[in-house]
UniProtKB/TrEMBL annotation:
Gene3D superfamilies per record: NAD(P)-binding Rossmann-like Domain (3.40.50.720), UDP-galactose 4-epimerase, domain 1 (3.90.25.10)
Entry similarity comment: Belongs to the NAD(P)-dependent epimerase/dehydratase family.
Lineage: Eukaryota, Viridiplantae, Streptophyta, Embryophyta, Tracheophyta
Domain of life: Eukaryota
Catalysis: reaction(s): UDP-alpha-D-glucuronate = UDP-alpha-D-galacturonate
GO CC annotation, single: Golgi cisterna membrane
Name used for this protein in its record: UDP-glucuronate 4-epimerase
This protein's record includes keyword Protein transport: no
Amino acid sequence: MSSSLEDELFPSTPGKFKIERSHAMNRQFHRCFASTSTMFLWALFLIALTASYLSFQSFIDSSSRYFSASWGGIQWEKQVRNSAQIHRSGGMSVLITGAAGFVGSHVSLALKKRGDGVVGIDNFNSYYDPSLKEARRSLLKTHDIFIVEGDINDNRLLDKLFDTVAFTHVMHLAAQAGVRYAMENPHSYVHSNIAGLVTLLEVCKSANPQPSIVWASSSSVYGLNDNVPFSELHRTDQPASLYAATKKAGEEITHTYNHIYGLSITGLRFFTVYGPWGRPDMAYFSFTRNILQGKPITIYRGKNGIDLARDFTYIDDIVKGCLGSLDTSGKSTGSGGKKRGLAPYRIFNLGNTSPVTVPTLVNILERHLKTKAKKKVVDMPGNGDVPFTHANISSAGRELGYKPTTNLQSGLNKFVRWYLSYYGYNRGKPVN
Ligand SMILES: O=C(O)[C@H]1O[C@H](OP(=O)(O)OP(=O)(O)OC[C@H]2O[C@@H](n3ccc(=O)[nH]c3=O)[C@H](O)[C@@H]2O)[C@H](O)[C@@H](O)[C@H]1O
């Protein structure tokens, strides 16, 4: 032991130093030995404690990762299979993208009610109030429809869904909607309407068996076409908005998958769909909200003071067109990514065939709401809008048995009744 260490361990005690020092050394030695072994045991104990804490922590982490993942696992697969179960002879199992959306939730319910199997997928994005999407999800849940939370750009999720269920059909309604929002967030249109579509088609073409695909195009593809009513044979190469351009691109993209891989494709050009559980970003919905709240509404007016007009189409009519399309879609011919023969490629207008001007839409709302709107009329900004839409639906009538039956007056009446009950209005005043 060096003196300095000795001095540290045995501080000098004047007068008794020598005798006491050897006793003291013995005692200290034992004490030191005892405390070293105790320390060693403590160290061992602490190491063991730390190791078990760390392994417990990693168990918690991995389990919470497992449990917080929005898809996957035995329970999840069971929910998917149950939801996809067919309850009628000759029924179909349909994967519905955008199932928590306006059209998606209505089509899901209609298919389920007639005994088809339905599995939804939706990314629940916040383009508009996600609580409305959640409410639609709850409604579908009461009818045993399961919506998988995920994005159509996630090919692993899509593969997993097709591994779990041999879907006979895909109803592809997930999209970035809205004509004017494309100027604010152009990339979201490319992400959902182009990249997402291609991801979905890639998975469908490789599936065995391949599903038949029905998907939502848009009346906006007619763009600057002024040949009325709009027929599927008219030109669609002059889109007025990026939204329209991505929907038109979708029509071309689906054509290539039909041509190369034998996927059965039906594209539906929806004309300004409205109704209960609708989209809050659309004019009829936001006008209703503002009128009830006493806020002004902005009415766009076309060139030379001409009123804008839309071929507003009620949701129940659109749902019938969607089901008619699924029922008549014909089979995809390919398997495992190889085409085995020609498959149907179809495009239909789904409109109402009776355009109504925006000021007339506002008048109808005022009557149903028993409240006058504070109107601000402005010239239509150059934001992608087209002056009017008007569908020729003879092709859908012939091939799908499509025959719209709801005019704007009665359709808006149903919408307003839903709106007042959903948002808890009592004589024009919100009750919650
Ligand atoms: O058929 C479609 O494929 C598209 O239909 C729908 O687009 P649009 O026909 O533009 O519907 P919507 O926004 O309700 O505007 C209606 C009218 O109100 C006018 N409008 C609008 C807002 C406003 O503040 N003021 C106004 O005058 C406006 O100028 C227009 O004249 C879907 O949103 C779209 O996703 C797509 O599906």
